[in-house]
Structure formats: C-alpha cells, structure tokens
From TrEMBL:
The keyword Hydrolase applies. Pathway: One-carbon metabolism; tetrahydrofolate interconversion. It catalyses: (6R)-5,10-methenyltetrahydrofolate + H2O = (6R)-10-formyltetrahydrofolate + H(+); (6R)-5,10-methylene-5,6,7,8-tetrahydrofolate + NADP(+) = (6R)-5,10-methenyltetrahydrofolate + NADPH. SUPFAM superfamilies: Aminoacid dehydrogenase-like, N-terminal domain (SSF53223), NAD(P)-binding Rossmann-fold domains (SSF51735). The lineage of its organism: Bacteria, Bacillati, Bacillota, Clostridia, Christensenellales. It comes from Gehongia tenuis. One of its GO terms (biological process) is purine nucleotide biosynthetic process. This is Bifunctional protein FolD. Its EC number is 1.5.1.5, 3.5.4.9. Catalyzes the oxidation of 5,10-methylenetetrahydrofolate to 5,10-methenyltetrahydrofolate and then the hydrolysis of 5,10-methenyltetrahydrofolate to 10-formyltetrahydrofolate. The gene is folD. One of its GO terms (molecular function) is methenyltetrahydrofolate cyclohydrolase activity. Residues 6-120 form the Tetrahydrofolate dehydrogenase/cyclohydrolase catalytic domain.
Length: 282
C-alpha cells in the first residue's frame, strides 16, 4: 500500500485565499492588520522563519514590521520594546521568535505580551483557555495547522487513538489539547517514554515532534494511520523530518512530506491569528 501524501502547500493556499479576502474586508473598514515580529540575534534557522513570516504577511496583505535586534541586547531593552508594541494601537499582533539567546528570560518576555496581541498563542492566558476548552483565545500555530491537515484527509478524529510524540509548549502540549478537545483518546510520548514503539503503533493519528531525524520508522506505524511529521532537521545540509518518509508511506494511510507538509500551514495559521487579532481590536 502507498499512503496519500498530505499536501500542506495546497491546504495552505486555499486558506490563504480566504485570508486575503478577510484582510481586504478589514482594510475597507479602515483597519490595516499589522504584525510586529521580533528577532533577537542571528540564528540562521530563525532568520529563515522570520523571512517566511514576512513573505506570508505580504502575500495576504498584512503589514509586517520586523525588529532585528543584536544578540547581546539586555532583558530590559527587550521588555521595553514589547511594552511599546503592546501600547501601539496600530500593532495588532506581536511575535517574538524563539529561541531567544540564553541570557534572556523567555518566560518573562512571553508573559509581558498582551494576550490580545499574542498571535503565537504562547501566553499562559491563551494556553490556559485552550487547556480548559474555553476557546476564544489564540492557539499555537503549528498544532492549529495540523488540525487543518488532518481535516483535509477526511479522517474523523472523534474516538480515535491519537499519539503525540514530543511535549513542547509550542507543539506537543497544545497538539494534545486540540486532539483531546476533538474527542480523540490522546497519549503523549517523549524522550523518557518506555515502550514508545508499541504506543506509536497503536495510533490512528500519529503526530511526531521530537526533533530527531527519521526517529519514527515504518515498523512503528499502524497500517492506514494518519502520520504528521513536524520535524525540520538539517542533516548534511539536507532537510529531514522526524519520520522516515520512504518507510512511512508504505504503511500509513496518509503522511505529510518534509518540506511541504506542516511548515506552510504553520505560517498560514499565524496570518489567520493576526487577522483575528486585528478584527477583535478594530
Ligand atoms: N520557534 C519555533 N517555532 C516557533 C513559533 O511557532 N513561534 C515563535 N515565535 N518561535 C518559534
């Protein structure tokens, strides 16, 4: 059997068309949606991500302002910038690219972002509203995009065994919450999990965000499963996912490629959150 490849670019393109129209509507009402992106230091990966976020904004008509700050800036300077952006009514969304250099306190910075402008969904208020199922807050972009990818397969989530490998605040934990809120039976695995292979093999929906190249092999996948690969690992200059794609596609029912799977939808959800913020703030 050969799996269907989930086309993240196509899913993304369709959503971006809707977002373009929404952005035009807001502009017609006198609101110019605006995202502030803060990048500290010169990590090459983060530079690429930020550039792609700026490009995404331009594509749907969102204004973006990038603040590229020296790696050596103080915590105080960064907090002052976030405070200024919080108070600027022309800025609807604020994104601080992670990771920050080691000497900076990431948690304190994220806590200062106004939850109404927290388009990454990282603030405890937004994470909390996802956790309680209250809704209405911002949801972390990668897991939100993954829900779209799963929806594109037509496979229903309710009652299914979903396994998430990875427990980060950015992907693993919010992913587990979204799947739970959609009535899946959810197991979260991580680097210390025993019998990970057996648990993964029981998954109808398997989301892999562990950051290890080709960690999931074909023998860890249930026949017909939906396999979502969040990995972006550089190996000898080549981009590798967390799933051994060639093996996965022989066993799974659906699988995302790397690149071209999860990546494009992550940025699309950021654009969607920014328009949601602009609409709410008016
Ligand atoms: N670093 C890796 N992923 C992300 C993300 O989704 N948002 C931000 N701000 N930083 C990241």
């Amino acid at each position: 059997m050969s799996a269907q490849i989930i086309d993240g670019k196509k899913v993304s393109k369709d959503v971006r068309e809707e977002l373009k129209a929404k952005c035009e509507d807001l502009k017609a009402k006198g609101v110019e949606p605006c995202l502030a992106v803060v990048l500290v230091g010169d990590d090459p990966g983060s530079q690429v991500y930020v550039r792609n976020k700026e490009r995404g904004c331009a594509e749907v008509g969102i204004k973006s302002i990038a603040y590229r700050l020296d790696a050596g800036i103080t915590q105080q300077t960064l907090l002052e910038l976030v405070d200024k952006l919080n108070r600027d009514p022309a800025v609807h969304g604020i994104l601080v690219q992670l990771p920050l250099p080691k000497h900076l306190d990431e948690k304190e910075v994220l806590r200062l972002i106004d939850p109404k402008k927290d388009v990454d969904g990282f603030h405890v208020v937004n994470a909390g509203s996802l956790f309680t199922g209250e809704g209405g807050g911002f949801v972390s972009c990668t897991p939100q995009g993954i829900m779209r990818l799963i929806a594109s397969t037509g496979v229903s989530i309710e009652g299914k065994n979903a396994v998430v490998i990875g427990r980060s605040n950015i992907v693993g934990k919010p992913m587990a919450m979204l799947l739970l809120n959609a009535n899946a039976t959810v197991t979260v695995c991580h680097s210390r999990t025993k019998n990970l292979k057996e648990i993964a093999k029981g998954a109808d929906i398997l989301v892999v965000a562990i950051g290890r190249p080709e960690f999931v092999t074909g023998d860890m996948i249930k026949s017909g499963a939906v396999v979502i690969d969040v990995g972006m690992n550089r190996v000898d200059g080549k981009l590798k996912g967390d799933v051994k794609f060639d093996e996965a596609k022989e066993v799974a029912g659906y699988v995302t490629p790397v690149p071209g799977g999860v990546g494009p939808t992550t940025i699309t959800m950021l654009l969607s959150n920014t328009l949601q913020a602009a609409e709410a703030q008016g």
